[in-house]
Specification:
CATH architecture of the largest domain: 3-Layer(aba) Sandwich
Helix content: 10-25%
Distance between the termini: 46 Å
CATH topology of the largest domain: Rossmann fold
Largest sheet: 9 strands, mixed
Structural class: alpha+beta
CATH superfamily of the largest domain: Vaccinia Virus protein VP39
Shape: globular
Number of helices: 12
Length: 456
Protein backbone atom coordinates (compact mmCIF):
# COMPACT_ATOMS: atom_id res chain seq x y z
CA UNK A 1 0.00 0.00 0.00
CA UNK A 2 2.92 2.37 0.62
CA UNK A 3 4.12 1.72 -2.93
CA UNK A 4 0.62 2.10 -4.35
CA UNK A 5 -0.75 5.01 -2.32
CA UNK A 6 2.22 6.70 -0.67
CA UNK A 7 3.21 6.46 2.99
CA UNK A 8 0.73 8.93 4.52
CA UNK A 9 -2.42 7.53 2.81
CA UNK A 10 -1.27 3.97 3.52
CA UNK A 11 -0.80 4.80 7.22
CA UNK A 12 -4.27 6.42 7.34
CA UNK A 13 -5.75 3.28 5.80
CA UNK A 14 -4.03 0.93 8.25
CA UNK A 15 -4.96 3.12 11.23
CA UNK A 16 -8.60 3.11 10.12
CA UNK A 17 -8.62 -0.68 9.69
CA UNK A 18 -7.15 -1.19 13.16
CA UNK A 19 -8.90 1.44 15.25
CA UNK A 20 -12.29 2.38 13.76
CA UNK A 21 -15.64 0.64 13.41
CA UNK A 22 -17.44 -0.10 10.12
CA UNK A 23 -20.28 2.20 9.14
CA UNK A 24 -23.87 0.97 8.80
CA UNK A 25 -26.12 2.08 5.95
CA UNK A 26 -29.48 1.26 4.40
CA UNK A 27 -31.12 1.95 1.06
CA UNK A 28 -34.88 2.47 0.74
CA UNK A 29 -37.09 0.71 -1.79
CA UNK A 30 -39.10 3.26 -3.82
CA UNK A 31 -41.25 0.47 -5.29
CA UNK A 32 -42.64 -0.11 -1.80
CA UNK A 33 -43.54 3.57 -1.49
CA UNK A 34 -41.37 4.31 1.53
CA UNK A 35 -39.91 7.64 2.54
CA UNK A 36 -37.50 8.03 5.38
CA UNK A 37 -38.17 10.04 8.51
CA UNK A 38 -35.09 11.45 10.17
CA UNK A 39 -35.17 9.01 13.09
CA UNK A 40 -34.90 5.43 14.29
CA UNK A 41 -37.25 4.24 16.99
CA UNK A 42 -37.29 1.10 19.08
CA UNK A 43 -40.69 -0.58 18.87
CA UNK A 44 -40.64 -1.38 22.59
CA UNK A 45 -39.87 2.24 23.51
CA UNK A 46 -41.26 4.75 20.98
CA UNK A 47 -39.73 7.63 22.94
CA UNK A 48 -36.22 6.27 22.32
CA UNK A 49 -35.31 8.06 19.08
CA UNK A 50 -31.89 8.25 17.41
CA UNK A 51 -31.35 10.57 14.45
CA UNK A 52 -30.03 9.24 11.15
CA UNK A 53 -26.50 10.53 10.83
CA UNK A 54 -26.43 11.51 7.13
CA UNK A 55 -27.45 10.55 3.59
CA UNK A 56 -25.00 8.46 1.56
CA UNK A 57 -23.95 11.23 -0.84
CA UNK A 58 -23.37 9.12 -3.97
CA UNK A 59 -26.64 7.14 -3.87
CA UNK A 60 -30.29 8.28 -3.82
CA UNK A 61 -32.52 7.16 -0.91
CA UNK A 62 -29.55 5.80 1.06
CA UNK A 63 -28.65 6.69 4.64
CA UNK A 64 -26.05 5.99 7.28
CA UNK A 65 -27.25 4.83 10.68
CA UNK A 66 -25.48 5.75 13.93
CA UNK A 67 -25.17 2.09 14.95
CA UNK A 68 -26.16 -1.37 13.78
CA UNK A 69 -29.61 -2.29 15.15
CA UNK A 70 -31.21 -5.76 15.20
CA UNK A 71 -32.52 -5.62 11.62
CA UNK A 72 -33.80 -9.21 11.80
CA UNK A 73 -36.63 -8.09 14.07
CA UNK A 74 -37.95 -5.34 11.80
CA UNK A 75 -40.91 -6.68 9.77
CA UNK A 76 -40.32 -3.93 7.21
CA UNK A 77 -36.97 -5.48 6.25
CA UNK A 78 -38.73 -8.78 5.48
CA UNK A 79 -41.33 -6.86 3.47
CA UNK A 80 -38.57 -5.41 1.27
CA UNK A 81 -39.03 -1.81 2.39
CA UNK A 82 -35.26 -1.31 2.59
CA UNK A 83 -31.98 -3.15 2.08
CA UNK A 84 -28.96 -3.10 4.38
CA UNK A 85 -26.02 -2.40 2.08
CA UNK A 86 -22.45 -1.23 2.58
CA UNK A 87 -22.22 2.41 1.52
CA UNK A 88 -19.12 2.20 -0.69
CA UNK A 89 -20.69 -0.45 -2.94
CA UNK A 90 -23.62 1.91 -3.56
CA UNK A 91 -21.26 3.97 -5.76
CA UNK A 92 -22.57 1.76 -8.57
CA UNK A 93 -25.49 4.20 -8.59
CA UNK A 94 -23.28 6.89 -10.17
CA UNK A 95 -22.49 4.67 -13.17
CA UNK A 96 -26.17 3.83 -13.63
CA UNK A 97 -27.39 7.41 -13.35
CA UNK A 98 -24.77 8.78 -15.77
CA UNK A 99 -24.66 6.12 -18.49
CA UNK A 100 -27.84 4.01 -18.43
CA UNK A 101 -30.68 6.16 -19.70
CA UNK A 102 -32.56 3.75 -21.98
CA UNK A 103 -34.17 0.35 -21.55
CA UNK A 104 -31.63 -2.43 -21.64
CA UNK A 105 -30.88 -6.04 -20.70
CA UNK A 106 -28.54 -6.12 -17.69
CA UNK A 107 -26.63 -8.98 -16.08
CA UNK A 108 -25.41 -8.88 -12.48
CA UNK A 109 -22.97 -11.76 -12.75
CA UNK A 110 -21.93 -12.37 -9.11
CA UNK A 111 -24.99 -10.95 -7.43
CA UNK A 112 -25.48 -12.63 -4.03
CA UNK A 113 -26.66 -11.59 -1.55
CA UNK A 114 -28.37 -8.92 -3.66
CA UNK A 115 -27.12 -5.45 -2.71
CA UNK A 116 -26.04 -4.37 -6.18
CA UNK A 117 -28.96 -6.15 -7.86
CA UNK A 118 -31.57 -4.40 -5.73
CA UNK A 119 -29.77 -1.10 -6.43
CA UNK A 120 -29.68 -1.85 -10.16
CA UNK A 121 -33.32 -2.81 -10.18
CA UNK A 122 -34.22 0.46 -8.45
CA UNK A 123 -32.27 2.81 -10.73
CA UNK A 124 -32.42 1.11 -14.14
CA UNK A 125 -34.75 2.89 -16.59
CA UNK A 126 -38.31 1.74 -17.12
CA UNK A 127 -38.51 -1.29 -19.39
CA UNK A 128 -35.09 -2.70 -18.49
CA UNK A 129 -34.72 -6.42 -17.71
CA UNK A 130 -32.31 -7.51 -14.97
CA UNK A 131 -30.76 -10.98 -14.76
CA UNK A 132 -29.33 -11.53 -11.26
CA UNK A 133 -26.96 -14.49 -11.15
CA UNK A 134 -25.05 -16.39 -8.48
CA UNK A 135 -23.12 -19.63 -9.18
CA UNK A 136 -23.08 -21.00 -5.60
CA UNK A 137 -26.35 -22.80 -4.82
CA UNK A 138 -26.74 -21.71 -1.19
CA UNK A 139 -25.96 -18.09 -1.98
CA UNK A 140 -28.25 -18.19 -5.04
CA UNK A 141 -31.18 -19.08 -2.79
CA UNK A 142 -30.44 -16.05 -0.60
CA UNK A 143 -30.28 -13.91 -3.74
CA UNK A 144 -33.65 -15.23 -4.93
CA UNK A 145 -35.18 -14.42 -1.53
CA UNK A 146 -33.86 -10.85 -1.50
CA UNK A 147 -34.88 -10.13 -5.10
CA UNK A 148 -38.35 -11.53 -4.44
CA UNK A 149 -38.72 -9.25 -1.42
CA UNK A 150 -37.52 -6.25 -3.43
CA UNK A 151 -40.55 -6.93 -5.61
CA UNK A 152 -39.79 -5.67 -9.13
CA UNK A 153 -41.34 -7.91 -11.82
CA UNK A 154 -38.76 -7.34 -14.59
CA UNK A 155 -36.19 -9.62 -12.97
CA UNK A 156 -34.82 -13.15 -13.38
CA UNK A 157 -32.66 -14.92 -10.80
CA UNK A 158 -30.30 -17.58 -12.14
CA UNK A 159 -27.70 -19.98 -10.77
CA UNK A 160 -24.92 -20.35 -13.33
CA UNK A 161 -21.16 -20.15 -13.76
CA UNK A 162 -19.76 -17.39 -16.00
CA UNK A 163 -18.95 -19.83 -18.84
CA UNK A 164 -22.67 -20.69 -19.09
CA UNK A 165 -23.27 -17.17 -20.44
CA UNK A 166 -20.79 -17.53 -23.32
CA UNK A 167 -23.40 -18.92 -25.79
CA UNK A 168 -25.61 -15.87 -25.17
CA UNK A 169 -23.77 -13.82 -27.78
CA UNK A 170 -24.41 -10.09 -27.57
CA UNK A 171 -27.49 -10.40 -25.35
CA UNK A 172 -26.56 -7.97 -22.58
CA UNK A 173 -26.22 -4.20 -22.84
CA UNK A 174 -24.62 -4.03 -19.39
CA UNK A 175 -22.74 -6.58 -17.28
CA UNK A 176 -21.93 -5.90 -13.64
CA UNK A 177 -19.07 -8.12 -12.43
CA UNK A 178 -18.43 -7.71 -8.71
CA UNK A 179 -15.91 -10.51 -8.79
CA UNK A 180 -14.66 -12.77 -5.96
CA UNK A 181 -11.48 -11.24 -4.54
CA UNK A 182 -8.93 -11.40 -1.73
CA UNK A 183 -11.29 -9.43 0.50
CA UNK A 184 -8.96 -6.74 1.81
CA UNK A 185 -11.92 -4.40 2.06
CA UNK A 186 -13.45 -6.75 4.64
CA UNK A 187 -10.48 -6.58 7.05
CA UNK A 188 -12.32 -4.21 9.41
CA UNK A 189 -15.37 -6.49 9.52
CA UNK A 190 -13.95 -10.01 9.31
CA UNK A 191 -10.91 -11.30 11.17
CA UNK A 192 -10.89 -14.41 8.97
CA UNK A 193 -10.26 -12.22 5.91
CA UNK A 194 -7.08 -10.99 7.59
CA UNK A 195 -5.94 -14.51 8.47
CA UNK A 196 -6.56 -15.83 4.95
CA UNK A 197 -4.65 -13.06 3.16
CA UNK A 198 -1.44 -13.83 1.28
CA UNK A 199 0.25 -12.50 -1.85
CA UNK A 200 -0.23 -15.94 -3.36
CA UNK A 201 -3.98 -15.65 -2.79
CA UNK A 202 -4.00 -12.19 -4.36
CA UNK A 203 -2.40 -13.51 -7.55
CA UNK A 204 -4.70 -16.52 -7.60
CA UNK A 205 -7.71 -14.17 -7.35
CA UNK A 206 -6.32 -12.08 -10.17
CA UNK A 207 -6.18 -15.09 -12.49
CA UNK A 208 -9.67 -16.25 -11.49
CA UNK A 209 -11.07 -12.76 -12.12
CA UNK A 210 -9.56 -12.71 -15.61
CA UNK A 211 -11.02 -16.13 -16.34
CA UNK A 212 -14.48 -14.96 -15.23
CA UNK A 213 -14.30 -11.89 -17.45
CA UNK A 214 -13.07 -13.84 -20.49
CA UNK A 215 -15.92 -16.35 -20.07
CA UNK A 216 -18.68 -13.76 -19.92
CA UNK A 217 -17.24 -11.26 -22.44
CA UNK A 218 -18.98 -12.75 -25.53
CA UNK A 219 -22.37 -12.12 -23.91
CA UNK A 220 -21.77 -8.35 -23.78
CA UNK A 221 -22.87 -6.38 -26.83
CA UNK A 222 -20.26 -4.34 -28.74
CA UNK A 223 -20.48 -0.88 -27.25
CA UNK A 224 -21.97 -2.38 -24.10
CA UNK A 225 -20.89 -1.43 -20.59
CA UNK A 226 -18.93 -3.50 -18.08
CA UNK A 227 -18.90 -2.50 -14.42
CA UNK A 228 -15.88 -4.19 -12.85
CA UNK A 229 -15.62 -4.06 -9.06
CA UNK A 230 -13.93 -5.71 -6.10
CA UNK A 231 -13.89 -5.23 -2.32
CA UNK A 232 -10.11 -5.14 -2.22
CA UNK A 233 -7.36 -2.49 -2.35
CA UNK A 234 -4.43 -3.90 -4.31
CA UNK A 235 -3.62 -2.91 -7.89
CA UNK A 236 -3.18 -6.55 -9.02
CA UNK A 237 -6.91 -7.25 -8.72
CA UNK A 238 -7.95 -3.69 -9.52
CA UNK A 239 -6.02 -1.42 -11.90
CA UNK A 240 -3.93 -4.21 -13.40
CA UNK A 241 -7.06 -6.16 -14.28
CA UNK A 242 -8.68 -3.09 -15.80
CA UNK A 243 -5.59 -2.64 -17.97
CA UNK A 244 -5.82 -6.33 -18.94
CA UNK A 245 -9.51 -5.95 -19.94
CA UNK A 246 -8.67 -2.99 -22.17
CA UNK A 247 -5.66 -4.67 -23.73
CA UNK A 248 -6.78 -8.29 -24.11
CA UNK A 249 -10.56 -8.09 -24.43
CA UNK A 250 -10.93 -4.70 -26.09
CA UNK A 251 -12.45 -1.89 -24.01
CA UNK A 252 -12.03 1.72 -22.92
CA UNK A 253 -12.37 3.16 -19.42
CA UNK A 254 -15.17 5.68 -18.90
CA UNK A 255 -15.10 8.58 -16.48
CA UNK A 256 -17.51 8.88 -13.56
CA UNK A 257 -17.48 12.42 -12.13
CA UNK A 258 -17.04 12.55 -8.35
CA UNK A 259 -17.43 15.21 -5.70
CA UNK A 260 -14.09 15.81 -3.98
CA UNK A 261 -15.83 15.75 -0.61
CA UNK A 262 -16.60 12.05 -1.09
CA UNK A 263 -12.93 11.16 -0.66
CA UNK A 264 -12.84 8.76 -3.62
CA UNK A 265 -9.30 7.95 -4.76
CA UNK A 266 -8.29 7.36 -8.39
CA UNK A 267 -10.56 5.26 -10.66
CA UNK A 268 -12.29 4.54 -8.16
CA UNK A 269 -11.04 3.45 -4.73
CA UNK A 270 -12.98 3.72 -1.48
CA UNK A 271 -10.56 3.47 1.45
CA UNK A 272 -11.50 3.40 5.15
CA UNK A 273 -10.04 6.51 6.75
CA UNK A 274 -10.58 8.49 3.54
CA UNK A 275 -14.16 7.63 2.60
CA UNK A 276 -17.07 6.74 4.86
CA UNK A 277 -17.43 3.09 4.03
CA UNK A 278 -15.55 -0.16 3.60
CA UNK A 279 -12.90 -0.97 1.00
CA UNK A 280 -14.22 -0.97 -2.56
CA UNK A 281 -12.96 -0.50 -6.12
CA UNK A 282 -15.04 0.17 -9.24
CA UNK A 283 -14.21 0.81 -12.87
CA UNK A 284 -16.63 1.41 -15.74
CA UNK A 285 -15.61 0.22 -19.21
CA UNK A 286 -17.15 0.26 -22.68
CA UNK A 287 -16.63 -2.74 -24.95
CA UNK A 288 -15.06 -1.97 -28.32
CA UNK A 289 -17.29 -2.08 -31.39
CA UNK A 290 -16.82 -4.32 -34.39
CA UNK A 291 -16.65 -7.78 -32.84
CA UNK A 292 -17.49 -10.21 -35.69
CA UNK A 293 -20.16 -12.16 -33.81
CA UNK A 294 -23.86 -12.37 -34.51
CA UNK A 295 -26.37 -11.81 -31.73
CA UNK A 296 -27.91 -14.91 -30.23
CA UNK A 297 -31.00 -15.92 -32.12
CA UNK A 298 -34.33 -15.65 -30.34
CA UNK A 299 -35.95 -18.94 -29.44
CA UNK A 300 -39.63 -19.59 -29.83
CA UNK A 301 -41.44 -20.74 -26.72
CA UNK A 302 -42.19 -24.45 -26.94
CA UNK A 303 -45.84 -24.97 -26.17
CA UNK A 304 -46.55 -27.83 -23.76
CA UNK A 305 -48.42 -30.79 -25.14
CA UNK A 306 -52.15 -30.81 -24.33
CA UNK A 307 -52.79 -32.20 -20.88
CA UNK A 308 -49.23 -31.77 -19.59
CA UNK A 309 -49.83 -28.42 -17.89
CA UNK A 310 -53.08 -26.96 -16.53
CA UNK A 311 -54.57 -24.07 -18.45
CA UNK A 312 -53.77 -20.62 -17.15
CA UNK A 313 -56.69 -19.45 -14.99
CA UNK A 314 -57.89 -16.18 -16.51
CA UNK A 315 -58.94 -14.76 -13.13
CA UNK A 316 -55.29 -14.53 -12.05
CA UNK A 317 -54.54 -11.94 -14.74
CA UNK A 318 -56.36 -9.29 -12.71
CA UNK A 319 -54.07 -9.81 -9.70
CA UNK A 320 -51.26 -7.72 -11.24
CA UNK A 321 -51.00 -4.48 -13.19
CA UNK A 322 -48.67 -4.08 -16.16
CA UNK A 323 -47.97 -5.65 -19.54
CA UNK A 324 -47.39 -9.37 -18.97
CA UNK A 325 -47.47 -12.69 -20.73
CA UNK A 326 -49.21 -15.28 -18.55
CA UNK A 327 -48.11 -18.91 -18.55
CA UNK A 328 -48.03 -22.05 -16.42
CA UNK A 329 -44.78 -23.90 -15.64
CA UNK A 330 -44.85 -27.03 -13.44
CA UNK A 331 -48.16 -26.12 -11.77
CA UNK A 332 -46.94 -22.55 -11.16
CA UNK A 333 -48.68 -19.55 -12.73
CA UNK A 334 -46.21 -16.88 -13.85
CA UNK A 335 -46.55 -13.31 -15.17
CA UNK A 336 -43.54 -12.32 -17.28
CA UNK A 337 -42.97 -8.88 -18.89
CA UNK A 338 -44.38 -8.98 -22.43
CA UNK A 339 -41.56 -6.89 -23.91
CA UNK A 340 -39.07 -9.71 -23.20
CA UNK A 341 -41.28 -12.67 -24.11
CA UNK A 342 -38.99 -13.69 -27.00
CA UNK A 343 -35.82 -13.40 -24.91
CA UNK A 344 -37.19 -15.52 -22.08
CA UNK A 345 -36.95 -18.94 -23.83
CA UNK A 346 -33.38 -18.15 -24.96
CA UNK A 347 -32.35 -17.43 -21.38
CA UNK A 348 -34.12 -20.53 -20.11
CA UNK A 349 -32.42 -22.72 -22.73
CA UNK A 350 -28.93 -21.83 -21.43
CA UNK A 351 -29.50 -20.85 -17.80
CA UNK A 352 -30.83 -22.42 -14.60
CA UNK A 353 -33.65 -20.05 -13.68
CA UNK A 354 -34.63 -19.91 -9.99
CA UNK A 355 -37.18 -17.09 -10.20
CA UNK A 356 -38.65 -14.97 -12.98
CA UNK A 357 -41.19 -12.20 -13.32
CA UNK A 358 -43.98 -12.61 -10.79
CA UNK A 359 -44.89 -16.05 -9.49
CA UNK A 360 -48.63 -15.54 -9.12
CA UNK A 361 -49.90 -18.81 -7.70
CA UNK A 362 -49.21 -22.50 -7.21
CA UNK A 363 -51.69 -25.28 -7.90
CA UNK A 364 -52.58 -27.07 -4.66
CA UNK A 365 -54.98 -29.89 -5.47
CA UNK A 366 -57.69 -28.14 -7.45
CA UNK A 367 -57.09 -24.68 -6.03
CA UNK A 368 -54.65 -21.96 -7.03
CA UNK A 369 -52.90 -20.66 -3.90
CA UNK A 370 -51.47 -17.12 -4.22
CA UNK A 371 -47.67 -17.18 -4.07
CA UNK A 372 -45.50 -15.21 -1.68
CA UNK A 373 -43.84 -13.58 -4.70
CA UNK A 374 -47.20 -11.97 -5.52
CA UNK A 375 -47.49 -10.49 -2.03
CA UNK A 376 -44.01 -8.97 -2.36
CA UNK A 377 -44.47 -7.68 -5.91
CA UNK A 378 -44.88 -3.99 -6.71
CA UNK A 379 -47.24 -5.18 -9.49
CA UNK A 380 -49.78 -6.56 -7.01
CA UNK A 381 -53.21 -4.93 -7.34
CA UNK A 382 -54.08 -4.02 -3.76
CA UNK A 383 -57.67 -4.89 -2.92
CA UNK A 384 -57.58 -8.14 -4.87
CA UNK A 385 -57.48 -9.97 -1.54
CA UNK A 386 -58.96 -9.00 1.81
CA UNK A 387 -56.30 -7.55 4.09
CA UNK A 388 -55.55 -7.87 7.79
CA UNK A 389 -53.32 -5.47 9.68
CA UNK A 390 -50.87 -7.08 12.11
CA UNK A 391 -49.36 -5.55 15.23
CA UNK A 392 -45.60 -5.70 15.72
CA UNK A 393 -45.79 -8.85 17.85
CA UNK A 394 -48.24 -10.48 15.43
CA UNK A 395 -45.96 -9.61 12.50
CA UNK A 396 -42.98 -11.28 14.18
CA UNK A 397 -45.10 -14.35 14.94
CA UNK A 398 -46.13 -14.50 11.29
CA UNK A 399 -42.49 -14.18 10.15
CA UNK A 400 -41.55 -17.02 12.49
CA UNK A 401 -44.30 -19.01 10.75
CA UNK A 402 -46.24 -19.35 13.97
CA UNK A 403 -50.02 -19.44 14.20
CA UNK A 404 -51.77 -16.10 13.76
CA UNK A 405 -55.44 -15.15 13.90
CA UNK A 406 -56.98 -12.53 11.63
CA UNK A 407 -60.25 -10.70 11.53
CA UNK A 408 -61.09 -11.17 7.87
CA UNK A 409 -63.32 -13.22 5.55
CA UNK A 410 -62.54 -16.89 4.99
CA UNK A 411 -60.07 -17.67 2.25
CA UNK A 412 -56.73 -16.17 1.29
CA UNK A 413 -55.92 -12.99 3.19
CA UNK A 414 -53.01 -10.58 2.68
CA UNK A 415 -51.45 -9.68 6.03
CA UNK A 416 -49.72 -6.30 6.34
CA UNK A 417 -47.57 -4.28 8.74
CA UNK A 418 -47.45 -0.49 8.50
CA UNK A 419 -49.15 -0.73 5.12
CA UNK A 420 -46.58 -3.16 3.70
CA UNK A 421 -47.63 -6.66 2.61
CA UNK A 422 -45.87 -9.43 4.56
CA UNK A 423 -47.50 -12.41 2.83
CA UNK A 424 -50.62 -14.56 2.83
CA UNK A 425 -52.59 -16.65 5.28
CA UNK A 426 -55.54 -18.90 4.53
CA UNK A 427 -58.27 -17.99 6.97
CA UNK A 428 -60.34 -21.00 7.98
CA UNK A 429 -62.48 -19.14 10.49
CA UNK A 430 -61.34 -20.64 13.79
CA UNK A 431 -57.67 -20.42 12.73
CA UNK A 432 -55.50 -19.27 9.85
CA UNK A 433 -52.87 -21.30 8.03
CA UNK A 434 -49.60 -19.38 7.87
CA UNK A 435 -48.33 -19.42 4.26
CA UNK A 436 -45.02 -17.62 4.85
CA UNK A 437 -42.18 -19.55 3.15
CA UNK A 438 -40.79 -21.99 5.73
CA UNK A 439 -37.20 -21.57 4.53
CA UNK A 440 -37.36 -17.79 5.09
CA UNK A 441 -38.76 -17.81 8.61
CA UNK A 442 -37.06 -16.02 11.51
CA UNK A 443 -35.44 -18.83 13.45
CA UNK A 444 -34.44 -16.84 16.53
CA UNK A 445 -36.88 -16.96 19.44
CA UNK A 446 -35.11 -14.01 21.03
CA UNK A 447 -36.37 -10.54 20.11
CA UNK A 448 -34.69 -7.13 20.24
CA UNK A 449 -37.63 -4.97 19.14
CA UNK A 450 -36.73 -2.60 16.35
CA UNK A 451 -38.51 -0.77 13.54
CA UNK A 452 -36.90 1.61 11.06
CA UNK A 453 -39.16 4.65 11.16
CA UNK A 454 -40.56 5.25 7.67
CA UNK A 455 -43.76 6.65 6.27
CA UNK A 456 -45.85 4.87 3.64
Amino acid sequence: MCQQLGEAPAKALCDALCSTEPSVSVRLNPWKGVEVRAALSAASSPSAVSSLSAPVPWCPDAYYLPERPAFTFDPQLHAGAYYVQEASSMFLAQAIIRYMSSASVVLDLCAAPGGKSTLLRTLLPDGALLVSNEPVARRAQVLAENMTKWGHPSTLVTQNFPADFSPLRHVFDVIVADVPCSGEGMFRKDAEAVGEWSMQNVLMCQERQRSILADVWPALKPGGLLVYSTCTFNRFEDEDNVDWICRELGAEVLDIPCNEAWGVTGHYHFLPGTTRGEGFFLSLLRKSDGEPLKPAAAVRERRPKPGREPAFPAALCSWVRGEFDFLVESDTAIAFPSSYALLRPLLRRHLHVLAEGVCLAELKGRDWQPAHSLAMSSALVRGTFPEAVLTYDEALAYLRREAVSVSAPRGHVLVTFRGLPLGFVKNLGSRANNLYPAEWRIRSGFTTPFVLSVSI
